[in-house]
Design a protein that fits this description.
single chain; 6-stranded parallel beta sheet; 3-stranded antiparallel beta sheet; 21% strand
Length: 277
């Protein structure tokens, strides 16, 4: 049976969530049209649309610099890191399944310090873990589109800001084929790691830009909190997330759909990557 033609009127809601959520389009009957016609009962329908490109890309806002977390943001080292940390956790009698989610996005020494294990020296154990992680970079891969995107950026306008020690960060970037920037802020460069804002503030200072003019790309709650505390804008990278993250920030799954425009002064604007015709 074919339903009779119904004169829908499409109305775009003016309400939009603060986190740039999707607009609603409400289809409703023209005035005076009854809610039922023949055997067909007409109800209100809501169509949820994808985030508009201009919202996803910060409405054409210009940024002086981009600051990237490393693990989970420009490369995926989860398999390698979790192999090493799982062995360490078993050695110390920890519940591996419960423990592993706590290691991401923060410095090893702070992860171990929080455990307060009797007789365990966090500095020594962090060094042991560094050596083990440096010996295991198998399966470290770039996040989709990251290499192309990073290669398009002006060298003086971006940095890697990571909780990993510098030697490990360099090993992983090279293993994944990620270009090594002129500026890398690593674990040993700050006294307080993420979620403290120190690392992002230091990166902005060394690049010679205001942190408020920076866009931070992050995947982990600790890093997002650090960027917020610093006063930067945030783009969440969800490529390695096993479950959706509730966040007020814009989010992308990778860099394949993102393009970059650079003006004469070197400031950068995000846009949607157009596929070749």
């Amino acid at each position: 049976m074919i339903a009779p033609s119904i004169p829908w009127k499409t109305v775009c809601s003016k309400r939009q969530r603060r986190d740039h959520g999707s607009l609603e389009l409400s289809k409703r009957l023209s005035r005076g049209f009854p809610g039922k016609r023949g055997d067909v009962t007409v109800a209100r329908h809501v169509l949820t649309l994808p985030k508009p490109v201009e919202n996803l890309m910060f409405a054409g806002r210009r940024f002086a610099a981009f600051l990237f977390d490393m693990d989970g943001t420009v490369l995926n080292s989860i398999a390698s890191a979790e192999r090493v940390w799982a062995a360490w956790a078993l050695k110390h009698g920890l519940d591996v399944e419960a423990f592993l989610p706590t290691i991401h996005g923060v410095r090893a020494v702070e992860t171990i310090t929080r455990l307060a294990l009797p007789g365990v020296d966090p500095v020594h154990e962090a060094f042991v873990l560094l050596q083990a992680e440096a010996d295991d970079v198998e399966g470290v891969l770039p996040i989709a589109g990251a290499v192309r995107f990073l290669n398009a950026l002006p060298a003086e306008r971006w940095a890697i800001v990571t909780s990993a020690p510098r030697p490990l960060a360099l090993l992983r970037m090279r293993a994944a084929g990620i270009p090594v920037p002129a500026l890398v802020v690593a674990a040993e460069d700050v006294s307080h790691g993420k979620p403290a804002p120190d690392c992002f503030l230091l990166a902005a200072k060394r690049l010679g830009v205001d942190i408020g003019d920076c866009l931070v790309f992050e995947d982990a709650p600790a890093g997002i909190a650090a960027a917020e505390a610093a006063g930067a804008s945030v783009m969440v990278i969800s490529a390695t997330h096993q479950h959706p993250m509730t966040t007020q920030h814009n989010s992308i799954g990778g860099y394949e759909t993102v393009s970059i425009a650079i003006d004469d002064s070197g400031w950068m604007t995000l846009g949607a990557q157009r596929s070749a015709a």
